[in-house]
Amino acid sequence: MPEKRGKSLTEQAYAILRERVIVGELAPGVDVSEPELAEQLQMSKTPVREALARLCVEGLMEAFPRRGYRVTPVTLKDMNDLFAIRGALEGTAAALAAQNLTETELETLDGLADTTYIVGENVSTKTFVASNERFHSAIASGSGNPRLHSLVMTHLEECARLFYMGTRVRDINPETTNDHHRIVAFLRQRDSEKARLAMIEHNENTRKGLLAAMVANPQSGISL
Questions:
Q1: pTM of the model
Q2: Angle made by CA atoms 224, 18, 203, in degrees to the nearest 5
Q3: Cystine design at 13: which of 51, 61, 63, 197 (Cβ 3.0–4.6 Å)?
Q4: Around 159, how many Cα atoms within 13 Å sit in the side-chain half-sphere?
């Protein structure tokens, strides 16, 4: 019984700390310690330590012997590398999905493309980021290639922290909505090549917008 409880507490600590990192409550580059986090979460240090170890494996935390932990900084190279891979993966997924998505699935995509958020408002921002992930996931799933879908989802999860950082420093509603509807239009036309190019362009628009806003804003949390 104690073992199950321990695992449960570790999972709870992991979920809470991971979300704090992703949404920016624990900002990139910030130092954290087991005792402080354990006190905040009202847990013993053991589940917190195990949760931090898991976050280190995922690359969201860094451990320093006798010093504690640091939230992994986000660098321009990280962002550029990540979007380069996303463009290739999601472009291929969109091309395949153009031949496979049903009308019902396309209607769902249209609805997800209309999701917006209020800049600075946490609840709507979380809904927006979740809807964006569902939009891209649905297209990747529509490719009919489970391995490709899995790869896309892995990179989308890595991008989540960047999305939250971006929503705080600029309004990305218009470009996201317009790009998403453009992608859906080509998917409806069953035009694989145009869908592929539209997805690649969308990823590049997002990358450039994030880059410009974060470099211009010293509080964005990105490291040059």
A1: 0.86
A2: 50
A3: 51
A4: 26
Confidence of residue 1 (pLDDT cuts 50, 70, 90): very low
Q: Is 28 in a helix, a strand, or coil? A: coil
Q: What percent of the chain has pLDDT over 90?
A: 71
Task: Give one word for 71, left, alpha or beta, with left for phi > 0 and alpha for psi -120 to 50.
Answer: beta
Percent of the chain with pLDDT over 70: 94
Pick the more confident residue, 1 or 70: 70
Q: Identity (one letter) of the amino acid at 99?
A: Q
Long-range contacts of 151-155 (CB under 8 A, 24+ apart): 151/89, 152/86, 152/89, 152/90, 152/93, 155/82, 155/85, 155/86, 155/89
Measured between alpha carbons, how far is 164 from 169 in angstroms, rounded to an integer? 9
With 0-12 / 13-18 / 19 or more C-beta atoms within 10 angstroms meaning exposed / middle / buried, residue 15 is exposed
Computed from CA positions of residues 138, 15, 119, 204, in that sequence, does the dihedral angle turn out positive or negative?
negative
Residue 191 to residue 35: CA distance in whole angstroms = 56
Quick one: pLDDT at residue 2?
43
- Going along 42-151, which residue ranges are E strands? 61-64, 68-71, 74-75
Contact 188, 100 (CB under 8 A): no
